[in-house]
Amino acid sequence: MRFVIHTESHTRCASRGMWSPKGQQVMIPTPGQSDKYYGVGAVNYHTGETVVQFHRRKRRKEIAQVLEALVEKHPSGTIYLAWDNGSQHEDDEVEAVLRAAAGRLVLLYLPTYSPWLNPIEEMLWRHFRREVTHCELFETKQALLTAAQDCFDRFNQCPQKILSVIGSNAAKVA
Fold first, then answer.
1. What is the tens place of the pLDDT at every residue in 118-132?
2. Whole-model pTM?
3. Residue 173 forms part of a structural domain
4. What is the number of structural domains in the chain?
5. Do residues 63 and 53 make contact, with C-beta atoms less than 8 angstroms apart?
């Protein structure tokens, strides 16, 4: 079972609560205009493996590209994919990927307004933002994309960390 995930990242600094010596304010430089990128991908709830792509937009086309990457990465067997009822999930491009997968890609729609049913959506992206973008200024969009991809490369090298972050005990059950 895989869960679809998506979030946005900015080149501007994403600040959060932080400590500083009494009477000294932490100064964080920020750029004038922020570039925004969206991470779109899926996480295997049983193994912790991630497939994530970063795009300028989060449209149906980008969703279809991630689905194609999943099918290419797993050329045999059935892929079960749980996702929300977002409008970007329904389109001719997405349907074309489903048809091309010849029944190997099974979509499971989560109920509307039920983010608690997708632990990956909230927990993984919170962890990603904490590791990559919080209190960090990226001079260029390439620096942001490199840091984001490096983060998911590290996650894929240590899938147990992902399973811990998303609260999966699937390996213990299996």
1. 777 778 888 888 888
2. 0.73
3. no
4. 1
5. no
